[in-house]
Design brief:
The complex is a heterodimer of chains A (about 375) and B (about 350).
Chain A (H helix, E strand, L loop, with lengths): L2 H4 L1 E2 L1 H10 L19 H4 L22 H18 L3 E5 L4 E6 L5 E4 L1 H4 L5 E5 L5 E10 L4 E6 L21 E4 L20 E7 L8 E3 L11 E3 L5 E8 L6 E5 H6 L1 H6 L2 E2 L1 H9 L5 E2 L3 E5 L2 E6 L6 H4 L7 E5 L2 E2 L3 H9 L7 E7 L2 E7 L2 E2 L2
Parallel strand pairs in A: 6-14
Antiparallel strand pairs in A: 2-3, 2-5, 3-4, 4-7, 5-6, 6-7, 8-9, 8-11, 9-10, 10-13, 11-12, 12-13, 15-22, 16-17, 17-18, 18-19, 18-20, 20-21
Chain B lengths: L6 E2 L2 H10 L6 H4 L4 H6 L1 H8 L2 E6 L2 E10 L3 E5 L7 E4 L5 E10 L4 E6 L20 E5 L6 E6 L5 E3 L4 E2 L2 E5 L6 E6 L4 H4 L7 E5 L2 E2 L3 H9 L6 E8 L2 E8 L1 E2 L9 E2 L2 H5 L10 E7 L11 E4 L4 E10 L2 E6 H24 L8
Antiparallel strand pairs in B: 2-3, 2-5, 3-4, 4-7, 5-6, 6-7, 8-9, 8-21, 10-20, 11-18, 12-13, 13-14, 14-15, 14-16, 16-17, 20-23, 21-22, 22-23
The chains are: A alpha+beta (about 375), B alpha+beta (about 350).
Chain lengths: ~375, ~350
């Protein structure tokens, strides 16, 4: 059944990538390993770096009045109007993702793992339904940056590139992309790129080369654009994790940093990802679904029989308030504690059930 | 078919979070689900909230409901209703309810409770809905705003999607039935406790002897369908009931298997497909928060929330599709009263 492949995820290499990046910051300076056969497009003049347009008026506050909400709504609607025509679906021989056109002549930014490597011919689908051929240019598998260019000369809708560096916690952003992939057969007319609203949860300044927002993403969104409220591209969708607030984007500054290499069609850091993948540590796992609750972290589902949560006697509706002697204030805080917990060791967990406090013993296992 | 890509990971996110936890504002305060933002929407949803109630089946909350007629008519999500139905009103009253009528295409049911003082919803007049427009969903008094977000796509059709068991198949040794080669962790098959080497002989009493036959029979059912499988396990014939799941977007290849609910960021509605039209929005609704109204910044009711469909999407049935159903039932319910009035008495509906 085709469903088998659909559940398979390259999580391990991504996990290791994130963990080890800070320790090997010099890795990006390794010599170019450009392929022997350069694509014709890459041999032609490589795309010039765009003029960066900073966010003039970033918004980090929570709107409190109706007029304020309406002002913010207007900005979001305008970002969607501007971003939609330039957001593309990318269909490769074995994958599907999204991308954003950032120049009139059809230069597209995406994630490296969408296009895999330079020199490939892929199909790009514009929001108006046009299917166009494109050649893949550079890919940095560490940063997950990728570039391609529409083959046919033309005057394409595009968005300006912004800056990810100045993004702040709480700043409002908008995501576009093709969640689930572009599937023209599913509806008539085919679903256009899908808009999502969110705020920056962790700016890229954490040194992890990642930008986290609560713009929800799913498979197929990879490579799609994250916009500031002025419609400038500030990130490219890359990864997700447990919980709807953990959506990771490549900060657009990383594209600018290695623009020359991406533009000339270099392919780098690919092998390192594989090596690191083999060494990937795995977080501890409870096998339960959780969400934020006013008192802590609420269990919404205990998952499959036999997982640690079920064995410990957790029930849907339980609110976890303490885990391994540490207070738990939200779902993210529990997930955070799990990453520093050792699998296969019993810990105590305080739980509120129907208003009554109880302590359960739970043994997290290695993430399957 | 090419697979949509996006990497999934576990640990990086937590590290990112741990650095941010040191900041003055917690993550909880700055997300679009933050209480502060929801608080700003209290006035926006206040009118629609007056018409929002909670629907319980055998005492567990299954959905929200929307009052559509003062005389006790409430619309809600049909596929969540089982057993004894009660409705919890905003004043705390819990009343028994019965299903008056159901529209399967819209997955909506109209309930009747014995009350005559309810506040019905006011529908928006043919609203123009833009992508990027802000929306909110009211809840019960203890959670007045359940979700905030934006409209994600133009109004669209949601086609039926195939149900999936979550197994890989092999031919059986004797050509009878189809053997399970592997059970995908987290799948419908695992939840039903199917095992590798089980041979599926029948689905709902119908024989399946080839892989293609079995796949076709399963894919024909919608996610959420409960199927009865006749299974040969170690020579013994047993019956196993399994609730089919939805197909999920295809992550990047790489050999690891993830619980679909991890990918989806929480449970999704059993019925989340096959709708003639929906307003797709990105609010993070709980499955028990469907059945309530969806409003715009003016507080106008754009539709009735009908499904949490995945990590990135929730659906509402547009008001113009709900209204004719409501009007029909409402008219039928008030007919006896109209007769009574014309007869010169003041009797209400029976």
């Amino acid at each position: 059944m085709s469903s088998l492949k659909r559940y398979t995820v390259a999580a391990v290499s991504s996990v290791a990538l994130g963990l080890l990046l800070t320790m090997t910051a010099g890795a990006a300076d390794t010599p170019s390993t450009a392929p022997a056969t350069r694509p014709a497009v890459a041999r032609a003049a490589p795309p010039a770096a765009p003029t960066v347009v900073p966010t003039a008026k970033p918004r980090v506050d929570t709107p409190s009045t109706l007029d304020d909400l309406k002002a913010l709504q207007k900005q979001v609607e305008e970002v969607v109007k501007k971003g939609l025509p330039a957001t593309v679906a990318i269909i490769t021989s074995d994958g599907q993702g999204s991308g954003i056109i950032i120049s009139k002549d059809g230069v597209i930014l995406t994630a490296a793992h969408v296009i895999e490597k330079p020199g490939l011919t892929v199909t790009v689908v514009l929001a108006d339904g046009r299917h166009l051929s494109a050649k893949t240019l550079g890919t940095d598998h560490d940063a997950d940056t990728g570039m391609l260019k529409i083959t046919k000369a033309g005057d394409y809708p595009y968005c300006d590139v912004g800056q990810s560096g100045p993004l702040k916690r709480g700043e409002w952003v908008v995501a576009l992309g093709h969640p689930g992939g572009y599937n023209p057969q599913s509806t008539t007319p085919p679903r256009p790129p899908v808009a999502r609203l969110g705020r920056v949860i962790s700016p890229s300044a954490t040194g992890l080369n990642q930008l986290d927002t609560d713009c929800t993403l799913i498979m197929g969104d990879s490579g799609g654009p994250l916009f500031d409220l002025e419609g400038h591209v500030v990130g490219i969708h890359s990864k997700i994790s447990i919980g709807t607030q953990l959506n990771m984007h490549v900060p657009v500054d990383l594209f600018l940093k290695s623009w020359q290499r991406l533009a000339r069609g270099d392919d780098w850091n690919g092998t390192q990802v594989a090596v690191r993948g083999a060494q990937a540590p795995k977080p501890a796992w409870l096998g339960i679904s959780v969400e934020d609750d006013d008192n802590g972290c609420k269990v919404t589902d205990i998952g499959i029989a036999g997982n640690p949560g079920e064995k410990a006697g957790l029930k849907p509706g339980d609110v976890i308030t303490k885990f391994n002697a540490r207070d738990v204030g939200s779902a993210s805080e529990l997930l955070n504690l799990l990453t520093t917990s050792r699998p296969n060791r019993e810990v105590a967990m305080d739980v509120l059930r129907d208003g009554e406090k109880m302590t359960l013993k739970i043994t997290p296992v290695q993430h399957p | 078919m090419p697979k949509p890509t996006l990497r999934i990971l576990g640990i990086l996110a937590a590290i990112t979070l741990s650095t941010s936890l040191a900041c003055a504002q917690t993550t909880k305060e700055i997300t679009k689900s933050a209480d502060g933002l929801k608080g700003s929407f209290t006035t926006v949803v206040s009118a629609a909230a007056e018409s929002t109630v909670q629907v319980k089946c055998s005492n567990s909350t299954v959905a929200l409901g929307t009052v559509v007629d003062a005389k006790g008519l409430i619309i809600t999500k049909a596929s969540e209703l089982t057993g004894d139905i009660t409705v919890k009103l905003r004043d705390g009253r819990i009343l028994p309810a019965r299903i008056v009528d159901t529209r399967n295409d819209l997955d909506l049911a109209i309930l009747k409770v014995d009350a005559s003082d309810l506040k019905p919803i006011t529908w928006a007049d043919a609203p123009k809905i833009d992508v990027g427009e802000w929306v909110a969903a009211p809840g019960m008094p203890d959670r007045p705003v359940v979700a905030v977000g934006i409209v994600s796509t133009p109004r669209r059709v949601i086609p039926p999607i195939p149900g999936v068991l979550g197994v890989s198949l092999a031919d059986s040794d004797d050509g009878k039935g189809v053997k399970i080669a592997e059970v995908i962790p987290g799948s419908a098959a695992e939840k039903a406790r199917l095992k590798a080497n089980d041979v599926i002989l029948k689905i709902d009493g119908k024989e399946a002897n080839t892989r293609a036959e079995l796949s076709a029979m399963i894919h024909k059912c919608e996610p959420g369908t409960l199927v009865t499988l006749t299974v040969d396990r170690d020579g013994r014939e047993i019956e196993i009931k399994a609730t089919l799941a939805a197909t999920f977007g295809d992550p990047t290849g790489g050999g690891r298997v993830v619980d679909p609910e991890v990918i989806l960021g929480g449970p999704v509605s059993k019925r989340a497909s096959n709708f003639p039209a929906v307003i797709q929005h990105d609010t993070v609704l709980r499955i028990t928060e469907c059945g309530g109204p969806l409003v715009d910044l003016e507080g106008k009711v754009l539709g009735i929330n009908i499904a949490r469909a995945g990590r990135t999407e929730s659906y509402a049935i547009p008001a113009d599709l709900v209204k004719p159903f409501v009007d029909k039932i409402s008219a039928a319910a008030t007919q006896p009263a109209a007769k009574a009035v014309s007869a010169g008495t003041k009797a209400g509906p029976q």
